[in-house]
Design a protein that fits this description.
Radius of gyration: 14 Å
Strand content: 5-15%
Helix content: 40-55%
Structural class: alpha/beta
Number of helices: 6
Number of strands: 4
């Protein structure tokens, strides 16, 4: 299975989600991208620190969402409903693959399900809180996939 996590700049939430899923389900192929990502931006330093405190190493270069990535992915998991809507607008032919992390993890694909908090510009504590939120939904995501 190929999973693509999508957020805004691909420097905070989606790379953290990618790192978590890779740790918890190493047999799943995972990538992340951003709707407005600048290619090769590094991950936010607080995202790297929050993961390091969990003994997870994040070597990451941001990448924008592309047609090639969307073709590769079996599931495209967004951090917010707005990200999902932007993907539907920009890449409508893949819309059946798009789900927010919260809605998919909770089994509420037809609802908006809520958004993962954006820690961008926040302190390390905010990144740790976002990481904890992500981990909660990643665990539910894995359980839903029954892997």
């Amino acid at each position: 299975m190929n999973v693509l996590f999508v957020c805004t700049g691909n420097t905070c939430r989606s790379p953290m989600a990618e790192a978590l899923l890779k740790e918890k389900a190493p047999h799943i192929h995972v990538q992340s991208a951003g709707i407005f990502a600048h290619p090769n931006d590094s991950a936010n330093k607080n995202a790297v620190r929050a993961l390091a405190e969990r003994d997870l190493h994040l070597a990451h270069c941001a990448q924008p969402v592309t047609e090639k990535l969307l073709k590769w992915a079996d599931l495209v998991i967004t951090m917010t409903e707005a990200h999902k809507q932007l993907l539907i607008d920009q890449f409508p032919k893949h819309k059946d693959k798009y789900h927010t992390l919260i809605a998919y993890s909770l089994g509420e694909e037809d609802s908006q399900g809520g958004d993962i908090i954006d820690p961008f510009g926040g302190d390390l504590l905010m990144y740790k809180q976002t990481l904890a939120e992500l981990e909660n939904y990643i665990d539910a995501f894995i359980h839903k996939l029954d892997i």
